[in-house]
Amino acid sequence: MRVITIVTGTLEENCYIYYDEVSGEGAAIDPGGDGGRIIEAAESAGVNIAVVALTHGHFDHVGAVPDLIRRWGCDVLAGDEPDEVWPKRRGFAVSRVLAKAILRDSRKIHDDDTFSVGGASLAVIAAPGHTAGSVCYHDSSAGVLFSGDTLFFGSVGRTDFKTGNRAAMMKSLAALAKLPPETVVYPGHYRATTIGYELAHNRYMGE
Questions:
Q1: Helix extents (H) in 18-176
Q2: How many domains does the chain have?
Q3: CA–CA gap between residue 167 and residue 181 (Å, rounded)
Q4: What is the longest distance spanned by two Cα atoms in the chain?
Q5: Is the CB of residue 101 less than 8 Å from the CB of residue 70?
Q6: Which residues of the chain are modeled with pLDDT < 50?
Q7: pTM exceeds 0.85, yes or no
Q8: 7 strand-pairing partners
Q9: What pLDDT was estimated at residue 190?
Q10: Structural domain of residue 89, as residue ranges?
């Protein structure tokens, strides 16, 4: 399995294309914007996007979903708890309407669900805290975790938005801390890291 990272939008959100080199089948994880660039990256690598997997419903993580559906007709997976599609301020009204429609039409997933992409099997880890519906995706065979806005390099996601909850975030981080330390973490923003590095250097992981 290979990972392509595309940084999208004004908030510099990480979209990941996780794909099987043999079959060419892949998943787009959090396609937040710049749909044309995501499609170009996938096509250049010979990837057919079979599924879009969302870690949560904030607009900066879902903006390019319609572009990918039009191109590939792919399924969309999202957590089964409500997400507030922040923010409400002027200028983001269209993004909020789009995000709500995407979440409404998505296939709901739950903790411990799994789905296949090419030769990989990804497990859903419920990770409320940043939002009530936040999830992570873990491929235990490859040793990779797509953490969305739950765990970052040296930090964690905010919990002061609607449906955010600090106590829930701490429980979610405690669950992630049990993964093997060599697990590579691909977060929703900033650079990749590992569980081991975060256990050693991220103060939130020890609370």
A1: 35-44, 65-72, 93-105, 166-176
A2: 1
A3: 23
A4: 46
A5: no
A6: 90-94
A7: yes
A8: 14
A9: 95
A10: 2-206
